[in-house]
Specification:
This protein has 911 residues and is mainly alpha-helical. The chain is 68% helix and 5% strand. It folds into 3 domains: 3-45 and 281-454 and 471-501 and 745-907, Multidrug efflux transporter AcrB transmembrane fold (Up-down Bundle); 71-111 and 221-275, Alpha-Beta Plaits; 121-210 and 563-683, no CATH class.
Length: 911
C-alpha cells in the first residue's frame, strides 16, 4: 500500500472542501479551549512523585495525621536582640489572630516549661536542687540592705580562708563554675552596653544547662542570636498553590502592616524574610507561571515573526503557524482527557511544542510550493506536496511520538506525564498539518512571487564546481566528528547531578537565601526528618538515639516532659514547692529590691573582686595538682570575667554602680518570678497530653495517639554525601522515618533512574523506528548519524562548560533527540529525492528548510533561556546547545557521510 498516495488524496479532499474542514476544526478547537479551562495545574511537588512507593505512602500518612510537614519560616533580623524579640513576639501574636493560620511560634512556651521544669530534671538534679535550697535556708539569705552588707562581709572572710578543692564533686563544681561565669558575663554586659539592657539574656545565662532550650526565654534563633525564626503553620495542609498562595501572602501582608506601624511610631523595623518549603513552592510557582506566560507568548511571537520574515507572505506564515497552534491547543484538550491535569513540568512544554510543531508545516509547505512552481494546479499541487513530504514528516513525527512514548514509561511521574502530553501533542500537530494546512492553503494560497527562492536548484550540469568534498576531506570530517562525538558522550557520563533544589530558583530568591543561611548559621533547617512512634516509650527511644547522632543538629520532642519516673519527680517537686513557699523568700527579695545597691554596699561588692581573682588562681593550681584538669577551663572562664568586671568598674565607678544596681534589680525580679513558679510546684498535678499547650500538642501528638519527633539535619541536605549519611542514620533510628530529606533522596533517585531509562529507551526506539520506516541502510545512517554526532557534541560541550544536570534540565537530552531527529530525516529524504545533486547541493537545498525549522525551535527555546526560574532557563540552554550541535552535524557532516556512502554522488556534476 502506497501510504503517500493515500495521504495525497486525503490532502486534495481537504483542499476541495476547505470550509467543511475549517468548520470542524473550529468545533474541535472550541471543545479543546473549553477543556483547557477545566484542566487543573497541580503545583505540589508531591504531584511529581510516584504515590505507590513506601516512602510516599509513609509521608502521606504523616500528612493525614499531622497536617503539613513543613512550616513557613519567617526570619527577623537587623536589630539588637531584645528589640528583635519584642518584634518577633508582636508579629507572632498578630499572625495567630489571622484566619487560616493554625500556629505561629516564635519561641517555646517558657511559662509552661518552667512550671514543669521538674520533669526535665533528673531525680539527682532535683535532689541537688533541694540540698541547695537547704543550704540557702541555712545561710539565711539577706532580706534588706543591712543584711546584704553583712553577707558581703562574710563572703570577704570566706575568701581569706576558703576550703580546699579536694573532695569537691568535679561534675557539679564544673556546672556551678560555668553558671557563675555566665552570670558574671551578663553583669559585664550590663556594665559595658551603650544603653542599659532591657532585660536579662537568659539564652546566655542558661547556655550551659542541658534544659536550656526549655528554660531560657526560648526564642528560635541563629547561633549568634542575630536572626530569629517564627514557625508558621497553615490550617490548610494542602501543598497546592491555591492553598499556599493565600497563606504566604497573608503572612507577608501581616509583616508589612506591622513594619508600617513601627515606622509610623518613629522606630526602625527589622528586616523580615520568608523561607521554608511553602515559601519555596510559592516562589517556584510564581516564577514558573510568569516564565510560562513569557515563554509561550514570546515563542509564539518569535516563531511567527521568523516565519513571516523568511517567507515574506502572511498567507504562507498562516499556513505554517495556524496548524501548529491548533495542534498545540488540541493537545491540551487531549491532556484533559488522558492525564486529567498538568504539572509544573508539563505546563511549560507548550513552548517546545511550538518549535517542534512548526517543523512539519515548514516541510510540507515547502514541497507544496515546489509543486506549484512546477506548474501544477493548486489542488493538485497541495496533494502532491503533502504526498511527497508525507514519508519524511511521518518518519520524523513518528520518531518524536515514539520518543515521548518512551518517556511515558519511566518511573518518575513528572517525566512520564510529560511524555504522554508531548506524544499526544506531536500526534495532533501532525494531524493538523495534514488536514488543516491543505484546507487553509486552498482558502489562502500564498503568492509564489513572494515565496522563497525555489527549493529545486538548476540542474547540476549547469552549475560550476563539483559541490562535493575531496574524498580525504570528507573522511577526515566524519572521523573527527565521530571521535568528537564519542569523546563528548564519554565526558557526558561524568556530568554531575546537582541535588540542590534551591539552585533552580531565581538568583535573587529570598526563600533560597534564608534557607541557606539557616543551614550555615543555625541548628534549624526548613528540611526536617520526622519520626513517628505509637507510644511514649518508643518516642523516647527515638529521641535519645537521634540525639546521639552527629548528622542531627537538634532533636525536638516532648518526651522529656513524660519521663518513666514522672510520678517520683512530681513528688519531689511538690515537696520542694512546699519548702519554698514556707521560707518566705519572696518577702526577702522584695526587701532587697527596695534597698537597691547604694554606694557603700556597692563598694563592699567591688572590694570582693581582687581576692576572688586570687582565690580562682589558687583553685586552678589545686585543680592541676589534684588531677581535676576538667575544672581548669571553667575556672579560667570565671577568672577572665572577674578581671573584665574589675577593669570596667575601675574605669567609671559611678556608672558602674548605677549599671550594677540595674543588673541587681533585674536578677531579683527574675529570682522572684522563679520562686513564684517553684511555689506552684507544691500543687502540681501529673502532666497529660491534654495539659500540653495546643501549639505544642498539635505539632507533636496526632489524634490517633501517634507521637512525632523532629530532627533537624546538621548539614546541607542538598549535598548527596550528607544526604546519604543522614538517611542512613534516620533509618537506623527508625525504619518509619519520613520528612523532606527522606522524600528528597527518593525523588532524586527516581529522577536519575528515569533519565537514564528514558534516554536509552528513547534513543533505541528512535533508531529502530528510523530503520523500519526508511527501510534503507544509507537512508537510516544519513538520518541517524547527525543526531548521534550532535548529541555527543552536546554532552561534550556541557561537560567542558561545567554545566550540571538538575531536576529540570536532565530531560534535555531526550528532548533534543525528539526535536533534532527531524533534521537528519529531512536531509535523508531529500538525499534520496535529489539523486542528480551532489552532497553539498543536497545540503544547500535541504538546508533552507532545515534552517527555518531549526530557527523556529531555537526561537521558542531562546525565550526559555530568558526565564527567571533557573530550572527552566537551564533546560533552554541545554536544548539550545543540543540543537546548535545537531544543525552543523546535519548540514556539514551528513553530506560528508553521504559522500562516503555513495562516492559517485561526489563525482556527479561538471568538472
Amino acid at each position: 500500500m502506497d501510504i503517500s498516495r493515500h495521504a495525497a488524496r486525503a490532502a486534495q479532499s481537504c483542499a476541495r472542501h476547505p470550509w467543511w474542514v475549517l468548520a470542524l476544526t473550529l468545533v474541535i478547537s472550541g471543545l479543546s479551549a473549553w477543556a483547557m479551562t477545566r484542566l487543573p495545574v497541580y503545583t505540589s511537588r508531591q504531584a511529581l512523585l510516584p504515590q505507590n512507593t513506601v516512602v510516599a505512602e509513609r509521608f502521606n500518612h504523616f500528612l493525614k495525621q499531622f497536617g503539613a510537614a513543613s512550616d513557613l519560616i519567617v526570619v527577623v533580623e537587623g536589630l539588637p536582640r531584645r528589640e528583635l524579640e519584642r518584634y518577633a513576639s508582636a508579629l507572632a501574636e498578630r499572625l495567630r489572630a489571622q484566619p487560616g493560620i493554625a500556629q505561629a511560634s516564635e519561641r517555646l512556651d517558657t511559662r509552661f516549661f518552667l512550671e514543669h521544669a521538674y520533669l526535665l530534671m533528673t531525680p539527682g538534679q532535683l535532689g541537688q536542687f533541694g540540698q541547695g535550697l537547704d543550704k540557702l535556708a541555712a545561710l539565711k539569705p539577706p532580706g534588706n540592705t543591712a543584711e546584704l552588707d553583712t553577707a558581703l562581709g562574710q563572703a570577704r572572710s570566706w575568701l581569706e580562708a576558703p576550703p580546699a578543692l579536694a573532695g569537691t564533686d568535679p561534675s557539679s563544681a564544673g556546672q556551678g563554675l560555668r553558671t557563675l561565669a555566665a552570670i558574671l558575663a551578663e553583669w559585664r554586659r550590663w556594665l559595658t552596653a551603650a544603653e542599659p539592657p532591657a532585660g536579662l539574656d537568659w539564652t546566655q545565662l542558661l547556655a550551659q544547662q542541658s534544659e536550656a532550650d526549655a528554660l531560657a526565654q526560648g526564642y528560635f534563633a541563629s547561633r549568634d542570636g542575630r536572626m530569629l525564626f517564627l514557625f508558621v503553620h497553615a490550617q490548610d495542609a494542602s501543598e497546592e498553590f491555591a492553598a499556599i498562595a493565600p497563606f504566604v501572602e497573608q503572612v507577608r501582608r501581616t509583616a508589612q502592616a506591622l513594619a508600617a506601624e513601627t515606622q509610623a511610631q518613629g522606630r526602625i523595623p527589622p528586616k523580615v524574610g520568608l523561607t521554608g518549603l511553602p515559601a519555596v513552592e510559592y516562589e517556584e510557582y510564581i516564577d514558573i507561571e510568569h516564565d510560562i506566560t513569557l515563554v509561550v507568548g514570546s515563542a509564539a511571537v518569535l516563531i511567527a515573526v521568523l516565519i513571516l520574515g523568511v517567507v515574506r507572505d502572511i498567507r504562507w506564515a498562516l499556513a505554517i503557524f495556524v496548524p501548529m497552534g491548533l495542534g498545540a491547543l488540541w493537545s491540551l484538550g487531549l491532556a484533559w482527557l488522558s492525564v486529567g491535569h498538568l504539572t509544573i513540568i508539563t505546563s511549560g512544554f507548550l513552548a517546545i511544542l511550538f518549535g517542534l510543531g512548526a517543523d512539519y508545516g515548514i516541510f510540507t509547505s515547502s514541497r507544496i510550493a515546489e509543486e506549484r512552481r512546477a506548474g501544477k494546479p493548486l489542488i493538485e499541487a497541495i496533494g502532491a506536496g503533502i504526498g511527497s513530504s508525507f514519508g519524511a514528516v511521518f518518519t520524523a513525527g513518528g520518531a518524536s511520538v515514539l520518543i515521548f512514548c518512551a518517556l511515558a514509561t519511566v518511573e518518575f511521574p513528572g517525566f512520564a506525564e510529560l511524555g504522554r502530553v508531548a506524544a499526544g501533542g506531536v500526534l495532533l500537530i501532525l494531524v493538523s498539518t495534514w488536514v488543516v494546512q491543505p484546507a487553509l492553503y486552498a482558502v489562502l494560497p500564498p503568492k509564489l512571487k513572494d515565496s522563497p527562492a525555489p527549493d529545486n536548484p538548476r540542474p547540476a550540469a549547469t552549475r560550476k564546481g563539483r559541490g562535493a568534498f575531496p574524498l580525504p576531506v570528507a573522511a577526515l570530517l566524519v572521523v573527527v566528528a565521530v571521535v568528537g562525538a564519542g569523546y563528548g558522550a564519554w565526558r557526558g557520563t561524568t556530568i554531575p547531578f546537582d541535588y540542590d533544589a534551591l539552585s533552580l530558583l531565581p538568583q535573587d530568591s529570598e526563600a533560597a537565601h534564608y534557607q541557606r543561611r539557616m543551614v550555615a548559621e543555625s541548628d534549624y533547617q526548613a528540611e526536617v526528618v520526622i519520626f513517628t512512634a505509637q507510644d511514649m516509650a518508643e518516642a523516647r527511644r527515638i529521641a535519645e538515639d537521634a540525639g546521639k547522632r552527629k548528622t542531627f543538629a537538634k532533636v525536638q520532642s516532648l518526651t522529656e516532659l513524660f519521663p518513666p519516673d514522672a510520678g517520683n519527680r512530681l513528688a519531689q517537686a511538690q515537696a520542694l514547692g512546699t519548702e519554698v513557699a514556707g521560707q518566705g523568700y519572696g518577702g526577702k527579695i522584695a526587701g532587697l529590691a527596695q534597698g537597691g545597691l547604694p554606694m557603700p554596699t556597692f563598694e563592699r561588692l567591688r572590694a570582693l573582686l581582687p581576692p576572688s581573682l586570687a582565690r580562682i588562681e589558687d583553685y586552678q593550681e589545686q585543680a592541676f595538682s589534684s588531677g581535676h584538669s576538667d575544672l581548669v577551663d571553667p575556672l579560667e572562664q570565671v577568672r577572665n570575667q572577674l578581671a573584665a568586671l574589675q577593669t570596667a568598674i575601675d574605669q567609671n565607678p559611678a556608672a558602674g554602680r548605677e549599671r550594677s544596681e540595674l543588673f541587681f534589680r533585674a536578677l531579683l525580679a527574675a529570682a522572684g518570678e522563679g520562686l513564684a513558679v517553684l511555689e506552684t510546684w507544691s500543687s502540681a498535678l501529673p502532666l497529660t497530653q491534654a495539659g500540653v499547650p495546643a501549639s505544642l500538642r498539635d505539632r507533636f501528638f496526632a489524634q490517633d495517639g501517634t507521637i512525632a519527633v523532629y530532627a533537624f539535619p546538621a548539614e546541607n541536605v542538598y549535598d548527596p554525601a550528607n544526604l546519604e549519611r543522614l538517611t542512613q542514620d534516620a533509618y537506623a533510628v527508625s525504619p518509619e522515618a519520613t520528612g523532606f530529606p527522606i522524600t528528597h533522596q527518593e525523588f532524586t533517585g527516581i529522577v536519575v533512574r528515569s533519565f537514564f531509562h528514558g534516554t536509552l529507551l528513547a534513543l533505541a526506539v528512535c533508531l529502530i523506528w528510523l530503520a523500519l520506516a526508511l527501510r534503507d541502510v544509507r537512508g537510516t545512517v544519513l538520518a541517524a548519524l547527525p543526531l548521534l554526532i550532535g548529541g555527543g557534541w552536546m554532552l561534550g560541550i556541557m561537560a567542558l562548560a561545567g554545566i550540571k544536570y538538575n531536576y529540570a534540565n536532565i530531560i534535555a537530552l531526550p528532548l533534543v533527540i525528539a526535536l533534532a531527529v527531524d533534521y537528519g530525516v529531512w536531509f535523508s529524504h531529500r538525499w534520496r529525492e535529489l539523486k542528480d545533486h551532489s552532497p553539498l547541493q543536497v545540503s544547500q537545498v535541504a538546508g533552507k528548510v532545515i534552517l527555518l525549522a531549526a530557527g523556529t525551535e531555537l526561537a521558542g527555546l531562546g525565550a526559555i533561556t530568558l526565564a527567571s526560574y533557573r530550572g527552566v532557563s537551564t533546560l533552554g540552554v541545554d536544548i539550545t546547545i543540543g540543537l546548535l550541535c545537531c544543525l552543523p552535524a546535519t548540514l556539514l557532516i551528513a553530506p560528508a557521510i553521504g559522500q562516503l556512502l555513495d562516492p559517485r554522488r561526489g563525482r556527479n556534476g561538471p568538472a
